[in-house]
TrEMBL record:
It comes from the Eukaryota. It comes from Strigomonas culicis. Residues 241-480 form the TOG domain. The lineage of its organism: Eukaryota, Discoba, Euglenozoa, Kinetoplastea, Metakinetoplastina. Residues 140-150 have a biased composition (Polar residues). This is TOG domain-containing protein. Pfam families: CEP104-like_TOG, CEP104_ZnF. Residues 134-199, 472-550 are annotated as: Disordered.
Length: 684
């Protein structure tokens, strides 16, 4: 059986009822595991044993569902739809039986006593329920009509009598004499009372919540049937705070988290319970709450709360080793918010992950979660922001922990980063993602050349040149930072590689090279007393020629090789977009792409890649609806490794950069290229 997956498929808009049911079952298991760990820490072994029984029951249900899913897929493949329908109903039965498992809390009475006291409490799942559900015959289902509702009789209440319109009387507690305030468990017209049950710690916490909230009145009481684990939160945080945390208003949730995570609130909680931090982490990592909350303000407050726990800002908080289980549950939820469209949320999550990695919690679990491709974590592909944040975090971790595993135990694995992060990101359709991947690639090559350089063969030639240019820039920056001559370092500027934002598919075009120094006559010199003689260095004799070469390189198109003294950054942009004979706009997404890699771009990187399929014979992109006809005709040119085929005119020549330049950038040029071979512009 596959390992327990803690992703949340019920967040996917297209998830079916079966997926949502399975997700709820997994969420129930996750909370039961957390509660059992908490009970073990408190040495409440009766509760731990009861929770273990529930976990085993739900685990068997999950295994049975997985086996039935496999059998259902086999039945669908064999087109035995009657059997598939039977299996589907059996799976629904198992899911419904799994939900009947009652979560036991510390101090709760035995199940039999609790059911005797409250008949609404569901019975525990019997051990043979799963086996019976699998073997039971499928019962026919009938469409049962809805029970007709009783017509309202409000208008039949006589005037002056007690009925629907007596709002004041309806709000009073019938069990209490008139004139007494509502009990702590009952909501008044403005919501729950701030006093809670009257304990000093609870009143202090509720006052802080009220201070942080802009809402008038208190939260509405909880619906016991709709909210799970509310008694656990009520036990540790109180009735008022639990209603805020699990209520519908985001302002109350945000205010409650801020109150718990501040010094005064946490001190009040620790005077009442020793498990406040564990319960808070369970809430922050639960689905739909805390870090996963849809309200941005709640997510920001959750990040601040985690920061307070990690940074020991709360003097009464337990050690990170004691909270490691809760922190581990929180990591996947934080990683899933890296692609958030809200910049503040994304930056806060990144800061929390960096702080957690630098703390005694360590970076191992965070790095493991980041190595998973965001596009493979759910049915819906992640946005480009998730990939950008992921690369940014890895770059930060490389700077902080290094890549030499012999020198540091927490150093990062270069092979894992390159194979699972950098190389896939270089194939991404977004230009910013590719630019960030190129910079990280260059950094890894500089730090671990023996390990990183073999990966250069797996990327495009144009990307290889960009990585090499970025490596030069990193080395030049390193040389400039160690230069002892303050005047020279002030005049030296390093031009880093950057992706052209106008066309995301076209990666950085500017080779990295230092800008020539200013003449000595224009550089003001410092007094001799401020500049010791030992710091004065004579420039190497080859420096002028290097500067001239670098200047010429900046004025040369790296694709077609054209040199033009008027090529500035803006003019080069215009050259790439309109004139360079080696480039063309993609016919599907209109991004400027190298002609030599156009076919690969269409089938792997293009935003419209779903419209085309790659021919296995000629390796060209063919419209998806025409692929069968294309294969049957067998009229395409079979692809060979030694030769290239122009996608514009289908001319065949040797596979090399020189071959492509000869065909596209020298007379007479490609017959079907809309740009002139000499780079003078479009064909008239």
């Amino acid at each position: 059986m596959s390992p327990l997956n803690l992703d949340q498929p019920n967040n996917v808009p297209n998830a079916g009822p079966m997926d949502r049911g399975m997700a709820e079952l997994i969420e129930k298991l996750r909370h039961l595991h957390a509660l059992k760990a908490k009970a073990v820490r408190e040495e409440d072994y009766d509760v731990a044993a009861a929770l273990k029984g529930d976990i085993d029951t739900l685990g068997r249900a999950k295994e049975a569902i997985a086996a039935l899913e496999h059998e259902k897929k086999a039945a669908v493949q064999c087109e035995n739809y009657a059997r598939a329908k039977q299996i589907k109903q059996q799976i629904y039965t198992l899911l419904n039986s799994g939900y009947e498992t009652e979560m036991r809390k510390k101090g709760a009475p035995p199940v039999s006593t609790k059911r005797a006291a409250d008949p609404t409490v569901p019975a525990p799942v019997a051990a043979n329920t799963i086996d019976n559900a699998v073997k039971m015959p499928v019962q026919p289902q009938y469409n049962v009509g809805r029970t007709p509702s009783v017509p309202s009789k409000h208008d039949e209440t006589k005037i002056g009598g007690r009925g629907y319109y007596d709002v004041d009387d309806a709000l009073k507690n019938k069990d209490e004499p008139e004139g007494n305030p509502p009990s702590a468990n009952q909501a008044g017209p403005m919501g729950l009372s701030e006093d809670g049950k009257g304990a000093p710690w609870e009143r202090k916490l509720n006052q802080l919540i009220k201070k942080n909230s802009s809402e008038e009145g208190g939260p509405a009481p909880l619906d016991r049937d709709a909210v799970s684990l509310d008694t656990t939160y009520e036990k540790d945080f109180g009735i008022y705070c639990a209603a805020c945390l699990l209520g519908r208003k985001g302002t109350f949730r945000e205010a409650a988290i801020k109150a718990i995570a501040c010094s005064e609130g946490f001190k009040a909680l620790t005077s009442h319970t020793t498990t406040a931090a564990d319960t808070l982490l369970i809430y922050l990592s639960s689905n739909g709450h805390g870090v996963s909350d849809p309200v941005a303000g709640v997510v920001l407050a959750s990040c601040d709360a985690v920061t307070a726990l990690v940074s020991s800002r709360l003097s009464d908080a337990p050690s990170l080793s004691h909270m490691s289980t809760g922190m581990s549950m929180l990591v996947p939820q934080l990683v899933s918010r890296l692609g958030d469209a809200n910049n503040r949320v994304r930056e806060s999550v990144e800061a929390v992950l960096v702080r957690m990695a630098r703390s005694s919690f360590g970076s191992e679990k965070i790095v493991t979660a980041l190595l998973v491709d965001p596009d493979k974590q759910g049915k819906k592909p992640a946005g480009f922001r998730a990939h950008l944040s992921r690369i940014k975090l890895f770059s930060t971790f490389v700077d902080a922990f290094g890549v030499d595993r012999k020198a540091r135990d927490n150093a990062l694995d270069v092979n894992a980063i390159l194979s699972k992060v950098v190389i896939p990101s270089l194939q991404h359709s977004n230009g910013e993602v590719r630019e960030a991947a190129i910079k990280l690639f260059a950094k890894l090559v500089v730090l671990q050349p023996k390990v990183a350089k073999p990966y250069m063969d797996s990327i495009k030639p144009a990307q290889q040149s960009l990585v090499e240019a970025q490596i030069k820039g990193v080395k030049n920056e390193s040389d400039d930072s160690t230069d002892d001559d303050d005047d020279d370092s002030a005049d030296m500027e390093t031009d880093t590689v950057s992706v052209q934002s106008r066309r995301p598919s076209l990666a950085a075009k500017k080779p990295t090279a230092p800008i020539p120094k200013k003449p000595a006559a224009q550089t003001p010199k410092k007094p001799a007393a401020q500049t010791p003689k030992k710091q004065v260095k004579s420039a190497p004799p080859s420096r002028p020629s290097e500067s001239a070469s670098a200047t010429r390189e900046l004025r040369t198109c790296q694709f077609c090789g054209e040199y033009n003294a008027s090529f500035t950054e803006a003019n080069l942009d215009m050259h790439y977009v309109r004139s360079c004979p080696m480039l063309c706009p993609c016919p599907l997404c209109d991004q400027v792409t190298e002609i030599c890699t156009l076919q690969k771009h269409l089938v792997s990187e293009c935003e419209g890649r779903d419209l085309v399929k790659e021919c296995p014979r000629c390796h060209e992109a063919v419209r998806a609806e025409e692929l069968r006809t294309h294969l049957a005709a067998k009229a395409c040119i079979e692809a060979v490794a030694s030769h290239s085929i122009c996608p514009l005119c289908h001319a065949r020549f040797k596979n090399s950069t020189a071959g492509w330049r000869t065909h596209l950038a020298k007379a007479p040029g490609c017959a079907n290229n809309p740009r002139k071979y000499d780079g003078s512009g479009p064909v008239q």
